[in-house]
Amino acid sequence: MRRLLLALLFVASGVASGQTAEIAASVVDEQGRPVEDAVVVAVPSDGSVRVPAHVREAIVDQVDREFTPKVTAIVVGTPVRFPNHDNIRHQVYSFSPAKRFELPLYAGVPAEAIVFDKPGVVVLGCNIHDWMIGYIYVSESPYFAKTGKDGKALLGDLPLRAYTVRVWHPQLATGEEATRKTVDAAHAGTVPVEWTIALKREAKIRRAPAADGRGGGY
Amino acid sequence: MYRTAHRCARTLACAACAVLAACASRLAQSAWQYDVDAGFSYDSNVNRAYAPADIRADAAFALDASAGRFYAVSGRDGLTLAGEATTEIHHRFAGLNALELAASATYRHKFGLGYAAPWIALRLAAAELQYRDDLRDGGRVEARIEMGQRFTPEFDAAVGGVLERRYARHDEPVVPGISGKVFDLRGQVLYARAGYALTDRLLVAATLAVRRGDVVASTRRDFEIFAASDAIAADPAFGGDFFAYRLRATTDAAKLSASWALDDRSSLNAVYADERTDAAGDIDYRSHSVSVLYAWRY
Q: Cα separation of B121 and B114, whole Å?
C-alpha cells in the first residue's frame, strides 16, 4: 500500500512538472551587449490569457532621488505603492495613457496604492526633481519577466501551448510589436529565444551639474 | 554705502527667515545640497582697458563651494537657501586675488506638472567681497528673475533679468571733486540662454546678455577716459601708473559652454565668453575669456 502511494505521488509529480514549459529569453543590443531591464512578455497564441484574481502589491521606491527599480513589470490590475525613502518630499506623476495619476507632495509611504488597470507603458516622473524617470510596464499577460545585467530572463510555469512573445525596453528604437516572435512551448522543457534589439537614446534629463553661472557673463 | 550693503544683506536674511517661518509646517522635510566648482580661467583683458598698450591678460584659479538647503514647499514650488564661498587666485596680478562670501535665497515656481511646465524663479543674493588690494573691497546685492521652460528632455531655454548693486568701501579720491568710489556700481542685465544635450553626457549651452550700467576700466592716465568718468581711483593691482575709471556703458556678452557629465554628480566644463563694451566718450573695449571647470554636486 505504501509503495503504491509513493508510486502514485511520483507519477502525479511527473505529470505536474510535465504540464509546464519555460522560455529562456536572451536580449542583446546591436553590438551584442546584454540588455538589462528589458521586459519579455509571453501571450498565449490562442488568446487564453487568465489574469490572476489576486495579485501581489508591487513597490517602486524612491532612493537618492531616483526611482528604484527603474523598470518595474507588473500584470494588469496590480496595485503599486510608491514609498519615499529620501529626506525630501517627492511628487510622483504620470501622463501616460495607460495610467494618469498624481501623488501630491509626500514623504514616507502614501496611504493608498495605485492600481494599474490598463495594459501599456507608464512613464513616471517627479515634479520636484525633473531628472527622475521610471517605467512601469503593465502586461496583459501574467507571463513575463525582466532581464538582468546578463540580458537574460526566464519565463517559467508556462502552460503548454504556443505563445506570442515580445520585448519592450525604455530605449527600444522600434515598436514593441516589431519584436514579436511565435514560440512553440507545447512541450515540457526550456525553449531558448534570443532577440537583438536596436536601442535609441533614452529620453532622460541630465542630472549632472553644469557650470552655468561660471566663466563670466550670465 | 557699505552699511547699506549690510542692511540689504540683513533684510534678505530676515525675508528668508520670514518665508521659512510662514511655511514651517510644510518645510519639515528638506535636503542639503552641496556644490563645488574648481577650475582655471584666462581673460584676455582683465583690466577692461581700451588702449592696446594698457590691456593686461591674466589667468586665474577659482574655487567655489556652496551649501544650500532645498525645501519642497509644494509640488510646484521650491525654496533654496544657500551660503557660498568663492576664492580666486590670479597668476600675474595678485591684487585681484579675492575671497567672496555670499548668501542667497531662490524661490522657484512651476506652472504645472511635468518637466515641460514653464517656471519662474526669483533669486536674491548678497555678498561680501575681499581683495588683496582693498580698492575692490565691498558688498554686492543682486535681485534676479528668470523664466524658462524645458521643451524636451534635451532642450531647455530661459530668459532673465538682473538688478545688481555693488557697494565700495574704498573712497580715496585722486582728483578733487571726483568720487574715489570707483567700485560703487549699478547695473541691469537682460539675458537669454538655451541648452541642448547632444548626448547623454554632452550638454552645450549658449547665453546672450546685454548689461547696462557702470563698468570699471583700469588704464594709464588718459584724457579721453578721464573726461568720460564719474569716479577715479589709483589701481595698484595693475601697477603704480594705473587708474581705475568708472564709466556708464553697455556691454554685449555672448557665452558658449560645453559640459561633459562624468557621472550623475560631476562634470567637466569648458566656457568661452566674449564681451564687447561700448562706454561713454567712445570708449570701447573687448575681452575674451576661457574657463575650464570641474563641477560637483551632492
A: 16
Question: What's the CA gap between A186 and A45, in Å, rounded?
Answer: 11
CB contacts of B115 in chain A (<8 Å) are 125, 130, 205
A170 — contact with chain B (CB < 8 Å)? Answer: no
CATH number at residue A99: 2.60.40.420
* Kind plus residue range of the DSSP H or E element containing B259: strand B242-261
Q: Is pTM, for the whole model, over 0.95?
A: no
CATH of span B2-297: 2.40.160.40
A145 is a domain residue: yes
Q: What are the backbone dihedrals phi and psi of residue B30, each rounded to the nearest 5 degrees, phi first?
A: -155, 165
Contact A136, A80 (CB under 8 A): yes
How many other CB atoms sit within 10 Å of the CB of residue B21? Answer: 9
Cβ-in-10-Å burial (0-12, 13-18, 19+) of A131 comes to middle
Residue A204: half-sphere exposure toward Cβ, Cα within 13 Å: 22
Q: Please report residues of B whose CB lies closer than 8 A to that of A68.
A: none
- Is there a domain that residue A77 lies in? yes
> Residue A115's domain spans which residues?
22-48+55-197
CB-CB: which of A88, A125, A214 is closest to B114? A125
Write out the DSSP string of B105-131. Answer: EEEEEESSSSTTS-EEEEEEEEEEEEE
Looking at chain A, the whole-number percentage of residues with pLDDT higher than 90 is 78
pLDDT tens per residue across span B222-279: 899 999 999 999 999 999 999 999 999 999 999 999 999 999 999 999 999 999 999 9
Given A90, A205, A215, which is nearest B293 (Cβ)?
A215
Residue A213 lies inside a defined structural domain of this protein: no
- Report the distance separating Cα B178 and Cα B198, nearest Å: 52
Q: Which residues of B touch A87 (CB under 8 A)?
A: 29-31
Give me the residue label for grid cell 546685492. B141
